[in-house]
Write a structure and sequence with these properties.
The complex is a heterodimer of chains A (about 325) and B (about 325). Chain A is of the alpha/beta class and about 325 residues long. Helices cover about 40% and strands about 15% of the residues of chain A. In chain A, strands 3, 5, 6, 7, 8, 9, 10 and 11 form an eight-stranded mixed beta sheet that branches. A two-stranded antiparallel sheet of chain A has the order 1-2. In chain A, α8 links the parallel β8 and β9. In chain A, α6 runs parallel beside α7. Chain A is globular. Chain B is α/β, with parallel strands linked by helices and about 325 residues long. In chain B, α4 packs across α13. Chain B is globular and about 70 Å long. The chains are: A alpha/beta (about 325), B alpha/beta (about 325). At the A-B interface, β4, α6, α7, α8 and β10 of A face α7, α8, α9, α10 and α11 of B.
Chain lengths: ~325, ~325
Amino acid sequence: MSWFEKLMPSRIRTDNATKRGVPEGLWVRCEGCDATLYRPEVERNLDVCPKCSHHRRMSARRRLETFLDSEGREEIAADIESSDVLKFRDSKKYKDRLIAAQKATGERDALVVMQGQLLGRPLVASAFDFRFMGGSMGSAVGERFVRGANRSLEKGIPLVCFSASGGARMQEALFSLLQMAKTSAVLARLQEERIPFISVMTDPTMGGVSASLAMLGDLNVAEPNALIGFAGPRVIQQTVRETLPEGFQRSEFLLEHGAIDMIVDRRDMRSRLASVLGMLTHGPAPGNVEDATGAAADEVDVIAADSSDEAADAPPPRS
Amino acid sequence: MNPDFLDFEQPIAELEAKIRDLRYVGDDAEVNIQEEIQRLEDKCRSLTESIFAKLSPWQVAQMSRHPRRPYTLDYIPELFDEFEELHGDRAYGDDPAIVGGVARLDGRPVMLIGHQKGRQTRDKIHRNFGMPRPEGYRKALRLMEMAERFHLPVLTFIDTPGAYPGVGAEERGQSEAIARNLRVMARLDTPIIATVIGEGGSGGALAIGVGDATLMLQYSTYSVISPEGCASILWKSAEKASDAAEALGITSERLKELGLVDRIVPEPLGGAHRDPEAMSARLRTALLDTLVGLEGLDPRKRLDRRYRRLMDYGAFQEAAS
C-alpha cells in the first residue's frame, strides 16, 4: 500500500486484490504482462499477447486448425485411446482421471494428429494437448504419433510435431516409458527415408517427451520463452541446492546452448516452416507469402468482421 | 541393526551373527556344538526361503538397490575372459557413471556398456550414484556405433536411479543425448541385449536399454519413475512408496507377465549379493543363450523383429466411434 492510500480513510479505500481477478468471458489476463486483453483480439493474434508477445498455451486442436490450411484436413487415429491394462489406482482411479480429462478437453487423449496442407503442400502434423493430464505420453499418444509418422512414410510427406508435455504418463508405468523408444524408432525410419521431421517445442516440453521425439527433429524449433528440459526445475533445485541460472531451461537458453535451431514466433510459424520444408524437399519457393497465407488471412478477416459488431465492448484499438 | 542387511532381512542377519558367534566359541569349547550350528544353519536357510518367497514389490525395489548388490564392474571379471575399458565421449568428458569397453564372452568379442554405482562414499560421489550425464550417454553411443562397425554384439547392464538432474546436464543436452540413443539403438545393425541388473530408473535406464531382448535379474526393477517419486506426486506423500511400487508393477515377474521383458534370470537364495559367483554363472548362460538365438537370425530379419517389438509396446484400444 502506498503512502497516499494509507492517508485515505478506509471506507473509500478499494481492495486491490479483488479487482485483479478477471471474469471469464470476453476479457483475459496476460500471464506475461498482466494486461487485460480483449479475448477476440487475442484469438485473432493466435493466442499471443498483442502487448508483450507472451505465447499463451494452446489446445491441440486449435493448434492444428490454426497451423494447417483450412482446406483438406483429415484426422488420423482419432479412435485410439488408452486401455488401462494395469488398472492403475492412486488417490483416484486412472480410469476416472482419463474420463475427467476427456470431458474437460473433448479429446480422447493428449495427442491430436492430422494430415493436411501447409501453404498448399501436404504434410502430417501432430500436437500435444497440455490440458489432457499435462500432455503426458502414454500408449495412446505413442500409437497416435506412430500412425501419423507412418502416414508420412507412406506418402513421403514431412512430419511436424508441436509438443507440450510434462513427460511420460506415470499411470501407465513401464508402458509409458517404452513409448519413448517406440516414437524414437519410427523417427529413425523417417530419417532412413530422408523425410523431414520438424519438432516444435512449446511451453512446456519436459521429461520423457523432451528426451525422445521432441529432441529428434531434423530441425528443433521452439516458441519464445517455452520451458524445455529433461528434469523439472524444482527437481534440479532440490538436487543441486543452489539458485538456478537466469532464464534456465527457457527457449533462449536452449538456443544459446546449441540444443535448438531457432525460436519462431507463433505468428510466423506457418511461413517459416513452409519455407524451410520447401528447401529441404527441393520444392518451389513459397513465392508471395501474402498470397500463400491467403487462407489464414481470410479467416482472420472473418473473425475481425464478426467482432466489429461488438465494437461497443471492445477497448480502443491499439495504435 | 546390521547396515549390510535391509529391514526385512534383519532376522536373517541375527541368525547369521549367532552362527558366527557359535563357530568362534566352537574353536576352543570342549562341547561339540557342530550339531547346534547345523541346526541353526538349516533354520537360517528356511527362514531366508520363507522371507524371499513372498517379497512385496517395495521389498524388491529395496533389493534392487541393496548396499551389497553387485554392480557392472563386479560382474565383468566373473563374466568375461578379457575386458578393456574405453573412455570418453570425444566431445566433453568421460562420465564414470557409465562404463564400457570391449570384452570377450565365452571366446566371442562383445561390446559391454553398463551403469556403474559406487560402493563407498567417495566412490559413490565419483560415480555420481550411477546417474549419468549427457557425456555418459554419448560415450555409450560412441561405443555402440563402434560395435556396429566391427560386428560386435552389444550387451548393456542397466543399474541407475535415473539420468542426473543437474544444471550442467541440462546445459549439455540431457534430453537430446537420451533421445538420440533411443533412435540409434532402434536401428543399430548388431544384436543388442539389455539386462537390468539392479535399478532400471526411467529414461536414464532406457537410454541404454533398447534392443532385441530385455533380460531382468529376478530382484531388479524397471520403472518409469521411482516408487518414492511416484508416491510424492500422485499420493502427495513419499511414505506411500510401497503402494506406488505395487501399482507401478516394477518387478521382473510382473513385467514378464505384461510381455515387456523377455527373460528373468533367477537369483541365488537371498539375492545376487549372497552368491555373486552363482549369479554370474546364471547370467552368463542367459546371455549366451540369447546371443546365440539372435546371431542365428538373418541381420535384416533381426532388425525387422526389433522394430516390430518396439512398435508393439503399448496398451491401447480403438474406441467405438
